[in-house]
Write a structure and sequence with these properties.
With about 100 residues, the protein is an all-alpha fold. The chain has 5 helices and no strands. Helix 1 packs across helix 2.
Amino acid sequence: MGAPAKSFPMALGALRIKEKLGISDRETVEQIKDNPYLPYFIGMSSYINEAPFDASMLVHFREIISANVVNKVNQMMVKKIQEATFEEADEKKKHKRF
């Protein structure tokens, strides 16, 4: 009954695209449709030249995913990247010693 639910990565990715580019809901959907990289960013397995969802879905995404959730996800991503960078730098230092 009804359309299948959209995934969390799709919703979060679409909201991040919208905020990063500073565009409207309709423009966000158009960007996702027209840019061959953005469908992969939102978790789609392949590129199709059609909108993955209607612009009105972004309203529902914003209701489900608050700004606090987006901020927490961003903080977790930055922390993981920093940890990986520090680990990589430590590995390079170890190899330089020998």
